[in-house]
Amino acid sequence: MPYMFKKSLESIIQELEDLGMTTRKFTITNEGSYCDADADWNYKDIPHANFMHSDITSRVFFCEDNSVTSLVIQKFLSIFKLPLCLTNYEYQKNELIYFTSFLFFILVIRTKIIPVLDSRTKVETTYCIASQRLLNFIFFPLLKWMLLKNNSKLMRDDIPMRERRADLRRRGYKFVSKNGSDRFGYSETLLLTEKGLRIPKHMQGLQEYSVYLKDIDKNRDQCFGSSDHKGIRIIRTDSEILVFPRICNHQGGDLSEAELVAGKIKCPWHGLLCAPICKLTNNLKDSKSNGPHSILINNKRCIIKTNMG
After folding, report:
1. What domain count does the chain have?
2. Which of 28, 74, 157, 238 could join 52 in a cystine, given CB atoms 3.0 to 4.6 angstroms apart?
3. What is the pTM of this model?
4. Average pLDDT over residues 297-303
5. CATH number of the domain encompassing residue 104
C-alpha cells in the first residue's frame, strides 16, 4: 500500500499555532433519529450538494474512497459568491476533517458521528478559525455567526435525507456499497448509476393497483400506496397517463413530489431522471411499459400491475 498519513484536528491546530497563528473554535451538536452509517453517507455524498443545497455549487477536482478535493462556491446573502478550495478526508471511522482558506483565514472543521442507540445518532461539528491574532479577535464573532447560520441551513436539508433512510431501514431496506458494507466512500457516491438500495423480499414481486379513471385528475399528481416499492405515483397530462415509482433505487430518495421534466421525474437528491414504469395515452388504447409492468383499462378502472424485484 502507498504511504499515507492523516492529521487529526488537534494536530492541525498545533501546526497552525506553531506557525504563529491564533486559533479559536466552537462546537455545534445535533442529534437525530438515524443511524451513524446514514450520517456518514450524507457527509460523504458529494453530488447532493448541487441539488439539495441552493446556496452551494460544487465541482470535484480529485476524489478517492477516503478523501476529496473540490471547488465549492458558497453564496452569502443571496448576492455574494465565495469560491473555496475544500479538502475533505476521513480521519478514522465516524470522524471527518475538512479544511479550506479564504482571505486571511484558515477554516478547519471536524465532524464526529457518535451512535447513541441503534437508530439514534449524535453529530458534533467543531469549527476552528485560524488567523493573525488581531484579525481573529475582530472577525471571529462575525465568522462564527456566519458558520452557525450556514450549518443550520445545511442541516435543514440534510437531516430529512438521513431520516428518510432510517425510515426505509425500519421497513426492511438495506443500503449496500460495492464492498458489501453499508459504508460508502467519497468516490462511490459519484457513481450515480449504481443501485445502493436493496429491496426487502416482502416488497418484491407483483403489486396491483385499481383506480377509477374519474379519480385520476388531469394535470395533477396523485400518489397511491406508501412511499416505497409498494407505492406508485400517477400523473395525468393532456395526452398521457404516466405511472412512476415513489422511490429512487439509487439511494432511496422519495419521488412522491419529484419534479416532472420532459416526461420523466427528477430525483431531488441527485438529479437522476426516472422514466415512467408504464403509461397510457389519453385515448385509453395505446399503452407502453418499462420492464415487467402493465397498465390497462377495465370497466372504467385503471388497472396497474408492477413487479419490483
Report:
1. 2
2. 157
3. 0.89
4. 76
5. 3.30.530.20
